[in-house]
Amino acid sequence: MSRRAALRDLGVRAAFMLAVYLAFAWRLPSYYSVNGIAALLDGAVLTGLVAAGIGATMLAGEFDLSVGSLAAVAGVIAIKLFGLGLVPAIVVATAASAAFGALQGLVIGVLGINSLVFTIGTLIGLRGVALIVAQQNTVTVPIDQLADTDAISLRLLGVFSPLSLILLAVLVLVGLFLGYTRWGREIYAIGGGRNEARAAGVPLLRPIVIAFTLSAGLAGLAGALLSMRSGSASPLGFDTVLLAAVTTCLIGGIALSGGRGNVLGIAVGLFTLRFFITGVASLGAPYWLQNLATGGLLILVIAVQLLPGLLRRAGTQPSAA
Amino acid sequence: MTTPVADAIRHLDAAAPTDARAVSRRRRIAIGAMLVAIAVLVGVAGATTPSFLTFDNLLVVIRNASITGIVALGMSFVTISGNLFALSAEELAILAACVFAWLMHAGFGLAPSLGATLLMTAAGGAVQGAIIAVGADPIITTLAFGALFRGLASLVTGNQNIELGSRAAVWIGTGRPLGVPTQSWAFILLTLAAWFALDRTRFGRQVVLTGANRAAAAASGLRVGQAALVGVTLLGIGCGLVGISAASQFGLAAANLFGGLDIDVVAAILVGGIALAGGQGSPIQAALGATFIALMQNFMLLHDLSTGVRMVVVGCLVAAATCAFHVMQQRRA
């Protein structure tokens, strides 16, 4: 896609986001109050961090289904390590997740295995690990130390919190890394055309390991941060974040086939989804209806993406003899 | 430059004679290995676990193997046609159970409720199959439909248990003609039917060819979309049967039935040795894989292993089987 076409594509997606925003802002004053916007930003943190990670694997032409389970493991670890202090616990949980992701990327890259199928295995295995580490129960920060987690919910600069600032920083950093560094461009290269990239001398293993390290590390960070905010972590938590993150990436124009899309698109996809889901929730829908709405939206996105191909095929199909 | 058609003919010609032999050899090895593994597992479980070989426990194992197996049979068509997996099987079975319970509760009677539920699951499968057939990624598509089905199940039940309120369906869930549970009769008959459909019919050949080489199959005039469409529809009907039998067995349905069915079915396909690339394998392998997984789950349960440990074991099994078969495949190529 040329630069101009890519810009136009992003413009269309941003216009769609704006339309969703206006449709709900029409009826919900919280969409333009300071508190409402702060809540919208905070609500986007979990999906946004995870989407930035799996976006990287999608750009590489791979996929990581294990992010939800890994977020649960990281959440449990972070709460269990709360004695170390708020920040060290989050850092350790994130680093452990990233290390697991590097290992997973190494296996996938070295064996050249189908990552969609391999990560079904780690999706279920990591959920088991979360249950074992948490001993089947929700783990909580001790009541007398609960005040120490308040730092994470502070209000800064009007509408921001430490969480939403971390999200923005991650989006900017991942965007710069993918778009403007050699290692980031390698991820695009192997996703866009793996054989051509290999022929041109692009290493295959490094970008795959980096992409899976990013997706696991950011899922771990999201799990740790969100668990800290609530002061508790359930080993069965974060089971719907994968769906939301995939939807975010696809709305944002990250192609499942790899090599196409950017972090700006992910941000547009993220807020399109959040405007929609927050709106549905504000109108009184229970949590399971929100998941239904996300699933429905994803089906819609998949169908819309198929349309151009279908139309082209209908146009070139020779009439039956 | 060669034309696609010439390419396809060359592929089919080159592949046909040698591949057929290699494929049937691989299948014989996989089936033999599965039978040995099942025998060893039964032997070890029987020798080390006194409660394993009791009548009641065997009934549980056979019933669970049948439930996983019926869904795995449908899934084997999806995998063999080259479309990996559908991750919405558990959710569609849940939706079937809830819709069936709701219809029975509302007093529609047994036959209309059965018919409507099976029709609904066939349609649920067909819609997914149609979207996959025109080129969408099977795993991501079914992930989305899984969320939709689970949400609809919550919607139908109001997120509560819903009782059938009639004993007309009890036999479907708990009957044992000639001592064998109804689910197992269904499993055995469906295994034979699936084997026949894939190995002995035109449609079956079409599924295998589409999975083996999609481009070649399309160029030779096969309707490649049909394999995905019919495969996922068959899976949907399997999910419907399983959902109806569970609702009948317990006399109620809820949106949290069948924990882990998706994963057990994926594990059954992988352990059964069906090639992920498509074009190879038989529903018999899926059936044996499902039996093995059900035995293993039961064995771990009797040894009081926690849910977490059991999930780690199955997860490692899936990852290891993926790697092992991939490496074997590459060595042969």
What structural keywords apply?
heterodimer; A: 321 residues; mainly alpha; two-stranded antiparallel ribbon; 12 helices; 1% strand; globular; B: 333 residues; ABC transporter involved in vitamin B12 uptake, BtuC; 13 helices; 2 strands; disordered N terminus
Brief overview:
The complex is a heterodimer of chains A (321) and B (333). Chain A is mainly alpha-helical and 321 residues long.
Cα Rg of chain B: 20 Å
Number of individual domains of chain B: 1
Number of helices of chain B: 13
The end-to-end distance of chain B, rounded to whole angstroms, is 25 Å
Through-space gap between termini of chain A: 36 Å
Strand content of chain B: under 5%
Task: Explain this structure.
The complex is a heterodimer of chains A (321) and B (333). With 321 residues, chain A is mostly helical. Chain A has one domain (44-269). In chain A, 72% of the residues lie in helices and 1% in strands. Chain A has helices at residues 3-25, 34-59, 67-80, 86-111, 115-133, 162-180, 182-192, 194-199, 205-230, 241-251, 263-282, 287-316, and strands at residues 139-140, 232-233. In chain A, 50% of the residues are buried. Chain B is mainly α and 333 residues long. Helices cover 77% and strands 1% of the residues of chain B. A two-stranded antiparallel sheet of chain B has the order 1-2. Chain B is globular and about 55 Å long. The chains are: A mainly alpha (321), B mainly alpha (333). Chains A and B meet through helix 5, helix 10 and helix 12 of A and helix 5, helix 11 and helix 13 of B.
SSE blueprint:
The complex is a heterodimer of chains A (321) and B (333).
Chain A lengths: L2 H23 L8 H26 L7 H14 L5 H26 L3 H19 L5 E2 L21 H19 L1 H11 L1 H6 L5 H26 L1 E2 L7 H11 L11 H20 L4 H30 L5
Antiparallel strand pairs in A: 1-2
Chain B lengths: L3 H45 L6 H26 L8 H17 L4 H24 L4 H20 L4 E2 L6 H5 L7 H19 L1 H11 L1 H6 L4 H27 L1 E2 L7 H11 L11 H20 L4 H26 L1
Helix pairs in contact in B: 1-12, 2-7, 2-10, 2-11, 2-12, 3-4, 3-5, 3-10, 4-5, 4-10, 7-8, 8-10, 11-12, 11-13
